[in-house]
């Protein structure tokens, strides 16, 4: 059983978005992700979808690669849409399907909420696909570094974030190996009753937690062996610096975010 996990995996391709400063990409990504939650009208929703598709085109990342990274979350959002469709009863009735009634508000919520979350998830996926883990670590180190003046471990938090991204494929492979081992011993969750499948999850989760603890212990020993010490005194091989294209990117992002609010006035 192979688990194809592409979340957190960098996709190398020359594009304008790939060449941007990682701090700019993180700031623009967060701005767009927060802004889409203010979408209230169909025109705003169309504007947000068009903006996300334009960013996807500028990133030159294949749509298939992006969909592979967000497919599990999209399935959850579709289920959320069905839940809103049949359980939201405000608005004018449209269709009666036995005991369930589809209303105008329920139909709008079933369309708006999944698409709104999908745009936000797409922004996060593009950030991870167009930025290397090292660049993300340097960006978060630069952003969280000032927290060290207040006694908070800003540099250490950036290191933890980098390790988390790097270990996503490793943990996925571990989970796949554990599931195959449990299936070979007759304890897989692909057969049996619903209760048996739920019970089979426990051994997999416990074994996966033990594997995660072992990896964390090995990483800590490796860092100790290399005399690693977090802090502001550490230097970088490629220091971050803003260029003209980064200023233009911030300006375009600000105009796009402002346009989303202006569209609501139309």
Characterize the biggest β-sheet. Answer: 2 strands, antiparallel
Strand content: under 5%
| Spatial shape | flat
> What structural class results from the helix and strand content?
mainly alpha
Helix-strand topology string = HHHEEHHHHH
Oligomerization: single chain
- Report mean pLDDT, rounded to a whole number: 81
Number of helices: 8
The N- to C-terminal Cα distance equals 51 Å
Number of beta-strand segments: 2
Low-confidence segments, given as residue ranges, are: none
Radius of gyration: 22 Å
- The neighbouring-strand order within the major sheet is 1-2
* Proportion of residues in helical segments: 55-70%
Report what the structure shows.
By secondary structure, the protein is mostly helical. It is built from eight helices and two strands. The protein has a two-stranded antiparallel sheet. Strand 1 and strand 2 form a beta hairpin. Helix 1 packs parallel to helix 8, helix 2 (42-59) runs parallel beside helix 4 and helix 6 (154-184) packs across helix 7 (194-225). It is flat, with a radius of gyration of 22 Å. The N and C termini lie far apart (51 Å). The model has no long low-confidence stretch (mean pLDDT 81).
Features:
8 helices, mainly alpha, 2 strands, single chain, 266 residues, 67% helix
Write the layout of secondary structure elements.
Elements: H1 22-35, H2 42-59, H3 63-87, E1 93-97, E2 100-103, H4 104-130, H5 133-144, H6 154-184, H7 194-225, H8 244-263
Antiparallel strand pairs: 1-2
Helix pairs in contact: 1-4, 1-8, 2-4, 2-8, 3-4, 5-6, 6-7
């Amino acid at each position: 059983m192979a688990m194809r996990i592409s979340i957190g995996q960098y996709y190398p391709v020359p594009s304008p978005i790939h060449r941007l400063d990682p701090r700019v990409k993180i700031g623009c990504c967060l701005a767009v992700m927060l802004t889409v939650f203010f979408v209230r009208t169909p025109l705003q929703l169309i504007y947000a979808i068009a903006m996300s598709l334009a960013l996807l085109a500028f990133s030159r990342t294949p749509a298939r690669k992006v969909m592979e990274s967000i497919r599990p979350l999209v399935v959850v959002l579709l289920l959320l849409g069905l839940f809103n469709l049949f359980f939201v009863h405000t608005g004018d009735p449209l269709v009666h399907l036995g005991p369930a009634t589809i209303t105008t508000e329920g139909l709008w919520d079933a369309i708006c909420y999944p698409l709104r979350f999908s745009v936000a998830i797409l922004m996060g996926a593009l950030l991870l696909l167009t930025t290397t883990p090292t660049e993300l670590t340097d960006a978060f180190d630069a952003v969280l570094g000032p927290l060290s003046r207040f006694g908070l471990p800003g540099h250490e938090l950036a290191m933890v974030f980098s390790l988390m991204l790097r270990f996503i494929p490793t943990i996925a492979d571990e989970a796949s190996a554990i599931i195959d081992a449990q299936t070979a011993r007759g304890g897989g969750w692909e057969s049996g009753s619903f209760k048996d499948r739920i019970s089979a999850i426990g051994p997999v989760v416990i074994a996966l937690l033990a594997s995660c603890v072992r990896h964390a212990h090995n990483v800590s020993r490796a860092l100790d062996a290399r005399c690693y010490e977090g802090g502001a005194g550490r230097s970088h091989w490629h220091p971050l610096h803003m260029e003209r294209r980064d200023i233009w990117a911030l300006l375009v992002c600000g105009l796009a975010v402002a346009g989303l609010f202006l569209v609501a006035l139309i």
